[in-house]
Amino acid sequence: MTEEIIRRVKGHYQNLRILDWRGYVAMTLFGYLFAGGIFAISDRTTLPLLLTTSLYLAFAFSINNCFDLKEDMRSRKTKNPIAVGVIGFREAIITSMGCALSGMALSYISFGGIPSVIFLLLLLLAFAYSAPPLRFKSLPPIDTISHGLFFGALLFLYGFAVVEKPPSSILLLAVSIFLYSILIELKNHMNDYESDLAAGTITTACWLGIDRTRKLFRILLCLHFIVLFYALYVFSSCYLLPILTSVILAVAIASICGEKSRATDVASVLAYIGVLIPYIL
């Protein structure tokens, strides 16, 4: 009995994919610190922000596993505890909806107004991405566009809106994060290209073909950095030169070490830090 409970608890932990939250929590905190500065960390809104973001991410990853069940069983993916029978579909759905409803209630009680509206949009998009009848993740290119919103731009805007109403000037950063999130999704599509084809999963990469997907990735990558470095110039022009130098060095070192795929992530993080520095010092 005790072993069965422990096994199920471990299964639910695996289903929430907590280790995959890091980048998305960072997007929310980026918006929060950009609006409120470093002292926002000690504000009473920090804890409910982190809790609601965590509940949202728990919902998004869990509900995705629930409705990826057939594909994951066909491709024999062991990362999905529902597909391998560690936890049941029904209890995973109940857990997912519990996280969503708890997060929505906490967001409304703690923040209300614009943050709660954004949080509701996050929940609806994450649900529509994974669950039928819409299941955006099987409708290219809506899959990548929706991912750019609910795992990108809207997280940034949610963190910002907790402090103040988002002005139009920060849309530049929101667009950059939107593009960066699409790049993350396309990278995953390219990595899973063969297994997705074998399982009959329709993604943007399967729809376009691997060569055209790689070309699209390069175009969006260039556009992402154009928007991001323009944002760096607008919001933090005094740090533009040292950040550019750091980015070039990081890309060069990564290329020498054979880690070209990580170079774009390092370059993006350094640029976002450069944007943030004047607002936290």
UniProtKB/TrEMBL annotation:
InterPro entries: Prenyltransferase_related (IPR050475), UbiA_prenyltransferase (IPR000537), UbiA_sf (IPR044878), UBIAD1 (IPR026046). The keyword NAD does not apply. Pathway: Quinol/quinone metabolism; menaquinone biosynthesis. The chain crosses the membrane at residues 21-41, 47-67, 88-108, 114-132, 144-163, 169-186, 216-233, 239-256. Keywords: Membrane, Menaquinone biosynthesis, Transmembrane, Transmembrane helix. Gene3D superfamilies: UbiA prenyltransferase (1.10.357.140). The keyword Transmembrane applies. Its main location: membrane. CDD domains: PT_UbiA_UBIAD1. It holds the Pfam family UbiA. One of its GO terms (cellular component) is plasma membrane. One of its GO terms (biological process) is menaquinone biosynthetic process. It is found in: Cell membrane. It is a multi-pass membrane protein. One of its GO terms (molecular function) is prenyltransferase activity. PANTHER family: CHLOROPHYLL SYNTHASE, CHLOROPHYLL SYNTHASE, CHLOROPLASTIC. This is 4-hydroxybenzoate polyprenyltransferase. It comes from Candidatus Syntropharchaeum butanivorans. The lineage of its organism: Archaea, Methanobacteriati, Methanobacteriota, Stenosarchaea group, Methanomicrobia.
